Amino acid sequence: MLKIAIYDRYLSTAGGGERYSCKMAEILSGQPGYEVDLVTDLYADIKEVASRLNLDLGRVNLKIFPYISDDYTKKLTAGYDLFINATYLSALSAYAGKNIYLCYFPTPFDVDFKFIHRFLLIFFRIGALWMFRLAGKLTGGFSSVEVEEGLYEPKRFMLRRGSWTGGRAVLKMQARGMLSLGIKNPSNSALESMDVRVVISENSEDPCCLKPGAGGNDRPGDDGGAGTVKESNGKDRDRAGRVHEYTAVLKRGQRKKIRIPLAGAAGMEGRDKKYRVEITSDTFRPSGGGSGSRDTRNLGAVIYDETAVNPIKKLILKILGYIPLFLITYPRHNSFLDTYQRIISISEYSSFWIRKYWEKDSTILFPPVDTESFNGGGKNKKQKVILSVGRFFPEHHNKKQYELAATFIKMIEKYPKDMEGYTLYLVGGVSDITGHQEYVKSIRKLVAGYPVEVLDNVPFERLTGLFRKASIFWHASGLGEDENAHPEKFEHFGITTVEAMSAGCIPVVINKGGQKEIITEGTDGFFFDGLQELSDISLKIIRGEVESGKIRENAIANCRKFSNSHFAQKLLSFIEEVINT
What we know:
With about 575 residues, the chain is an alpha/beta fold.
């Protein structure tokens, strides 16, 4: 069995990059002899991600991989035959049998840095690195805890701070003598009371690891609270032997500490054992509580690692919990690339800048596009709809939705007869980040009273419906930017443009970045260099001054080279080549 890991730190966002990494996982997991793990360091509900991306991830395992140190990275990646780093702006070194780096674009790692970031790098980086190395030695490389699922911020937990669960969390914890775990229904919880259940069982083949108790009897939790610990060796036990079960009802703001005595404490046989810890609890969604929060996560109990440690180790771990991770992960040079045998780029545009910035060659593997879902059998009935799709955010290669909305408003005001009945749809995901939310608010304020719909985080089914009825598709990433000075601010490929073509939309997109590799001017779409040209071309289409029917047919036909089936063929051939060399 070939063990493959695909690392995507931003899995929970379910964006364009995630569709690429998850499509790889879907394809590879369907091959005989391949076992595939999707690895992330921030918990994501893999079923929800699969649903949002319209993918089948039923054969894929989810692994939580919080970046703590290079030593920790070695232990986690070295167990795989093939490691694929599919995380944007990642400087992670890889130590699997074979390693592939998927590069969307070689964006400079300090692209987001402000003065404070540079100040901290200059004056605190060395100290932070020293602290992490010391902590790694004291903790044995942070190997005492493995997070399998359900913990949103594993790094916080491993550094002895509280971390939200998703209603069900599974850990493997190493302990000697006593396993201690803190559970809390936080004061900012939406639940007046929270039912919590913790089940602890041995994770090895030794059936005698947990100290024996009267099977089926209850005893008070060690914190003296209302919780109980139940020991069972009945039908519900796993192959490891006895199970400890703790149940409690926590009022809002209440915290309890569970202490479970373990066999083997007095001898060497118990020192390296790990125990399976499963925590389940009631859940709530912050966005549904009337607080105004846009956090749509399912949140359960907050848990803490309360295992006894010496005061010095405890202090160091506590300090590390407050050190910004970029001080550890920021690369001073690109030597991490030397740990990868091959680099995948997603377009000629990205490949060009990889050679320029990194002096490395790459293999171009265009992103997979679900052209079949958007096509609608080629019978899409077009309406007076102009569509633009892309995440809402104000920085980097943002989609310029504000400028597009302003252009549409000018067209409405200047050409009311031509634009009668037309609606502009601005559609995309938006994160629960203040700057991103403010950007969406500014657009909604601008378009108030005009036929413009601003839709965020729409389901896949509704998105496909919008593509199918749209007549024209707009895309403007990089508008007003200098391609030589800031090439990262342009579309690295243009997945939504291909989706639009497959749905029979006429694309009118900016003549920069990866878009130039998708469209043939005048045959299956049009390019613009400025907003006035965007307006002029769109009006020609609206007035019937171009052969719209022919252009739509060409767009549908020409986008097939970016289809899922074409991507699968290229990917499998590439993976086979990497494995066999």
